[in-house]
Write a structure and sequence with these properties.
By secondary structure, this protein is mainly alpha-helical. It has one domain. It is built from 16 helices and two strands. Strands 1-2 form a two-stranded antiparallel sheet. The longest helix is centred in the middle third of the chain and has 21 residues. It is globular.
């Protein structure tokens, strides 16, 4: 199905509210504490967001690595692997709430910064952040000090600042008196990401997000996604030139499988609806 007949943003909006159905909690300044909080959602959505129905897989992974057991439970790994095996980085394109925020910011009319060899090299940074802030630091710091911490959530994640930190501080006077350097640092990072998202397509997804890095490992092998019919493809590279992500080929690690390349392919070689067809 051609992308022009399919509005991706509709799925993104539905996914946003599926991740965050308890909107009334923003006015109360409270966090939903139901049983659903024990389940990891697909996208990057902070556990502490007042409206959140579930837990962020990155936050859960870090918290367990920094726990007294010092290991990630199999159910968290299982959820991430299952999602990745089915749809890979389609999560980034269709299901991630912070991806929607970046897409909307990029729609603001202004001169844009295109992709280049520099941005392609910078895209490697998210794998470094995954290893250092999500895996190594929580585990190693716990082993050495006995007190672990979800370092990516604590020091970097702008989604948590936007969806949880700022709303909770606004709604709770006690938190307002307790904010310090760390909160100011996180707000500064958020402002940087918000402003850069107006000029650069999805900077957080491309350069920073560890969850996208994890899902990218499944792109070549996931059951559903973007596939190229090699018998029709003429290697004109129009698809990759048109793509705003730092892809070298359709469905590589930087492809978020949004489907926009389908419309620009002159040979109709790219498809969303043939999961048994693999890229070659």
């Amino acid at each position: 199905m051609k992308q022009k007949f399919f509005k991706r943003i509709y799925v993104q909006v539905v996914a946003f509210f599926a991740h965050n159905p308890f909107v009334q909690n923003f006015f109360k300044g409270t966090i939903h504490q139901g049983k659903s909080k024990g389940i990891c959602v697909p996208g990057l959505n902070c556990y502490s967001c007042p409206a959140a129905a579930g837990a962020c897989p990155l936050g859960s992974l870090q918290s367990n690595l920094a726990s007294p057991q010092g290991k990630a439970p199999l159910y968290i790994i299982g959820i991430i692997v299952t999602i990745g095996a089915f749809i890979g980085r389609s999560v980034c394109s269709f299901l991630c709430p912070f991806g929607l925020v970046q897409d909307l910011l990029y729609k603001i009319p202004t001169k844009k910064v295109g992709k280049s060899k520099v941005t392609r090299h910078l895209s490697v940074a998210k794998y470094i952040i995954l290893m250092v802030f999500v895996i190594l630091l929580p585990y190693v710091v716990y082993l050495t000090t006995g007190i672990g911490s979800p370092f990516f959530c604590k020091l970097i994640c702008p989604a948590g600042t936007l969806g949880a930190g700022i709303p909770l501080v606004i709604a709770n006077e006690n938190l307002q008196s307790a904010i310090g350097f760390l909160f100011s640092w996180k707000v500064t990072l958020l402002v940087i990401f918000v402003l850069s998202s107006v000029f650069i397509y999805r900077p957080f997804c491309r350069f920073i997000c560890p969850l996208g890095a994890i899902y990218s490992f499944f792109n070549k092998y996931a059951l559903f996604g973007i596939y190229v019919d090699a018998s029709k493809c003429t290697q004109c590279k129009k698809c990759t030139r048109y793509c705003k992500m730092d892809v070298k080929e359709v469905n590589d690690r930087e492809c978020i499988r949004c489907g926009e390349c389908i419309d620009v392919c002159p040979e109709n070689a790219i498809s969303l609806n043939k999961p048994w067809k693999k890229n070659k």
